[in-house]
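Translate sequence into structure tokens.
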Amino acid sequence: MQTKWQTIVIGGGPGGYSAAIRCAQLGLKTLLVEKGELGGTCLNVGCIPTKYMVELANSINKFSYLGAIGVNVEYLGLDLERYHDSKKKVVKQLTGGVRALLKHAGVEIIKGSAEFISDSTIKVTSKNDSFELQGEHFIIAAGTRPKELSIPFDGERVISSTDALNLTEIPKTLTVIGAGVIGLEFASIYSQLGVKVSVVEVASSALMNEDQEMVHYVLKALNKRGVEFHFNTSVLTATETNEGIQLIVEQNGQQILLPSEKVLVAAGRTSNADKLKLEQTHVELDKGFIKVNEKMQTNVKQIYAVGDIVGGWQLAHVAYEEGMIAAETIAGNRIENNHSHVPRSVFTSPEMSAVGLTEPQAREKYAHIKVFKIPLQANGKALINGLGQGEGMSKLIVDEEYGEIVGFSIVGEHVNELITDVTSVMSLEGTIDELSEIIHPHPSLSEVIKELALLATGKPLHSL
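Result follows.
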């Protein structure tokens, strides 16, 4: 085993494997250390299996619409064993693809856990051995894990998002703690599977960093499926019962009992930095996350960190970019991080996507803005996709002085694929005039973007 490397990457998730591939492409002798499966949280217990479950739930939910348009169908239940087998095949195919990409790029891979001994040396512990490795540069991409509250996970009654992906039986009732992205996605999934879902959130609403007018459409749809929301509510105690677990929560000074078979804790994620013995280095942390500059470099010049472990945007597509930025910087190329146009998507039903500023944020930053909105009921493809229902809304926020697009949000079925259209124009500093000149196919959901731009330029075609 080679003991000295130009670059050692710790963690094989989106940030880690993208960094390793780019380092190798740039001619650096690169080692990737991963204690679990390649692909990290995203590919194994996050983005991919969660969205696979979203697709399952959405497909089952379609049965109610099919009956309304004359299709005689009956939903007879779900074989979870066969479903989990099909999900595993998809995950295995993608993890195998990551391994092939790393191998093709020339990256060496070791399966084991890493701990720092100093700023230049790590100890790797594998199944049968442990050894020390030296690196000229390190890229830490060790990710995060579900945050535990005062109620510890037991994998049975109090579950994490990972557990929620692998249940062997569908519960009749579920309480979700947290109304962020993860909490809302699982509330959407399980409510479509016929589960009675309650959501407990300490804040005054869900997705507090997003435009609340748009969030309203998501909450309205979940309410229709029987999801109960308890905002401004904190959990006091949890007690096991014969039927499951009972929470005592406090809302507006009153205590409420919330019994359910299972409780899903989706109140955020915590950094894995504490697993790396960084106290034996000079790397600085901020509330458990690793501090980095715009080049993903820590205060120790040869140590970089990317992905969820640095906090900020905990999104796989951001981790990809950060991994490549770190690699390019190590190779001596000038490249900097730009998080001003990060698309944000929530895979509920209906979906929600946004890029740039929310309306309140834009009003605070700009002297004069204009806001343009078009309901998806005005879009033919939205009505087709919803088999007659086109629930949702789109919103474009424009700086009145220069016509610059400063924010965009959209809610509806299958709208997450649209966000890149506006993100691209915003990244190129395009204006509403330029956005309005792009031709979109008909019928398509993307036509709503052109119509918004036409409305913003005072030349609407299909809206008032």
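Note: The chain has three domains: 4-146+270-330, 158-267, 350-456.
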